[in-house]
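Section 5: illustrative case.
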């Protein structure tokens, strides 16, 4: 007989139109358990109840997957994604579980959080997951296909701090709550970047607004 967490995850996956095998689902649930366990000592997240973690962290991160798959469907080479301000590994760890062909780099300036992600790489057996304890502004250009952020900063700051890490033709995917109208208006002076799509998303079991902002890198940036 399934426990409530397993049932909730299965239902959430069905509503999102995602098909994950048993091993992937078990890894997601183990990830929640590890977050809860580490959270008691390291305060990784303000959310403490397992079911709330499942909805507000795991399903919220999974909601971006269908759009990433469409975005990356025509890539002929290995795909690289960078998760900036990843915190406890959200959505980076979730994305690494969902698709073993995606190479994930999670970046955060808080050492206890990157230590947790490094531990998850081993515990969840995710060789495609890497982590960097650093400020994204201090890193050499990474040349990634997609740079993703979840509640990291304003769109303007994401472009300013992270835009040089995105390969020409690549994307910044910003996960937001309500449509960030004011942030979008502030992008008028950001040459080389185009708002390609604004997507409203529904997260199962969550009564809150969520949207994605897809920014495309139209030209190569001149960085040393």
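Designed sequence:
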């Amino acid at each position: 007989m399934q426990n409530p967490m397993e049932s909730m995850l299965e239902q959430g996956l069905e509503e999102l139109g995602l098909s994950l095998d048993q091993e992937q689902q078990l890894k997601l649930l183990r990830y929640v358990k590890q977050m809860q366990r580490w959270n008691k000592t390291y305060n990784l997240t303000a959310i403490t109840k397992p079911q709330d973690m499942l909805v507000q962290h795991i399903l919220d991160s999974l909601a971006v997957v269908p759009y990433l798959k469409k975005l990356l469907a025509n890539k002929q080479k290995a795909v690289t994604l960078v998760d900036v301000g990843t915190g406890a590994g959200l959505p980076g760890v979730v994305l690494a579980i969902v698709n073993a062909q995606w190479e994930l780099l999670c970046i955060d300036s808080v050492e206890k959080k990157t230590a947790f992600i490094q531990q998850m790489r081993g515990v969840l057996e995710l060789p495609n997951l890497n982590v960097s304890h650093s400020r994204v502004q201090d890193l050499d250009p990474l040349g990634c296909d997609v740079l993703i952020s979840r509640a990291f900063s304003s769109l303007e700051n994401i472009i300013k701090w992270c835009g040089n890490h995105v390969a020409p033709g690549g994307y910044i995917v910003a996960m937001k709550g309500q449509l960030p109208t004011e942030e979008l208006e502030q992008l008028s002076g950001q040459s080389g970047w185009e708002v390609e799509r604004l997507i409203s998303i529904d997260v199962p079991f969550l009564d809150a607004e969520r949207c994605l902002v897809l920014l495309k890198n139209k030209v190569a940036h001149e960085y040393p």
